[in-house]
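Q: For a teaching session next week I want to show students how multiple molecules come together into a single three-dimensional assembly. I've collected the sequence lines for a complex. Could you give me the predicted structure tokens for the whole thing so I can convert them for display?
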Amino acid sequence: MNLFCVGISHHTANVETRERIAGACSEEALRTGARCKEALLLATCNRVEVYASAEQPIATEEIVRALQQCGAGEVENALAFYRHDGEACAEHLFRVVAGLDSMVIGETEILGQVKKAYEGARASGTAGPLLHRVFQRAFRVAKQVRSTTDITRGAVSVGSVAVELAVKIFGDLRERSVLVLGAGETSERTARALSSRGVSDIRVSNRSFERAENLAASVRGRAVAFDDWTQQCREIDILISSTSAEEPLLTPQLLAPMLRGRADRPLFIIDIAVPRDVASEVNEMEGVYLYDIDSLQSIAEQSLAMRRQQMVAAEKIIADHVTDFSARFSGGDPRVTSLSPRALARES
Amino acid sequence: MDRQLLIASTLCFFTALLRTLFAAREGISLHGRFNFFSIGLGFLFQTAFMSIRGHALGRCPLTNLFEVFVFLAWSVALIYLVIGPAYRLSLMGAFTAPLVFLIQTFALLAPIDIPHPTRLPANPWLEFHASMSMIAYGAFALACVAGVMYLVQERQLKTHKIHSVFYHLPPLTNLFSALTRLLWLGFALYTAGLISGFFTGGPLPRLKMICAFAVWIFYGVILQGRHLHRVAPKRIAALCILAFSAAVSILWAINFVSQNRPM
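A: Of course. Below is the structure for the complete assembly, covering every listed component.
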């Protein structure tokens, strides 16, 4: 039995090409068209891959042709398709589900997409025993990689970094109050992200009260007069600032009186305005954590770098699984080219 | 035999310490059950050691500095095992294991296991006083550990330099809440130990009393500052570390003045 994978991904093809290929073909049509014994089509925004098994070797061109015949658009460059056979196919799948092959390393959405594709193939009967084993093993690998490495840790966008920092300061965000100063797009996104994490008290203040009301309505908050925003700092836990002021709006002198009596209540300030709304000296005040756009981006980059570092540990886990998987199914043959009923029983 | 049990216990804590160092070096998760079970096993060996020692002495094994340190290590492990899972502070194990390992290694290597010249009679009040005080020290030790964790996390947040450990440490507010509870627990136990000291029947050494009250007042002031929201959490965390360091030093002093009188 030959296990193989043919596909295109963000590494080899642009989004237009991936769009043309994705979602057009049924697995049953693919299986009969390409004479495969088993077939599974994984189509996400970043990749279109066919995982299949066959009694006889099947050329990549046949798979591409089968894809085109069952409705996928014209493939201008067949070279964009890559192919992995046997052990390399298992390794590739393990890397995909673990998020190592994703555009954002360590992203976890891919696991759900692979599970959905697998369930679909199982339901339609196009995934047989070999694909069942290799996909089940892939899910185990993904779980192990996620639980024993930090590959999924750390936010990689400005909004998610802000939310993660808020969680690391306050823990549960449900009882926290947020003041959004300035009704810009980034502050709206950050406020929405905080709202999705349970923050229920969101106040919006803007020079234009109407815009403040509009944003407040969209995040289920309430508008506050711009003249009152400094007083709000006594009550709030998180301040998101993104006004177009030329000079800092918040200075240590202005903030100090408002921090009295809240020694054990931290204040998290997210300043995404350029030029900055909050004087950098504010970060030196006790219990105040100030982050500007550069520091948020820097943390997002640190997270990405950390995820890249974690790839070594993740690759080792994958390599161990590939070796084990290969040994179980090939009886010592490094390629997964045979699948005996006894081997299947052993794995079960 | 009893020392071998203590060596086995120390090795368990050393294993947890190695696992922490390995995890930190390899960048893999610091969480997991390994540390918890390793500390749990170490705790069982400690308990067996104290049980054998206690039976041999016919009283609570707190007759010399060696036993005092082992009891302290046992209290730290006990409170970690109870508090850690309850407050989701499993990572505390990564900080607790080195502390217990250091205390026990010192106890094993230092020439402080000197048997008392005479067999001491059992005194329930004295034993209650000493054991309550030691368990209170265990709570203070873990408050110190929580303080270290708080300061590590706070520094990363303040300086914007986020390391891998940041993602494993609990949120600042949770750490501070755990630290406060540990302080209250330790303070209550210490107060009970202090009061019971007056019922032991013997004359009370003056220096010992002054030292014990100094520790009590120190922790009382920290708690008062916390209760009145006058002191910032960062300072409370730093004070917890300072107070525990002072309390351990005073524990030595108390033992020094109690040479002719068991604790």
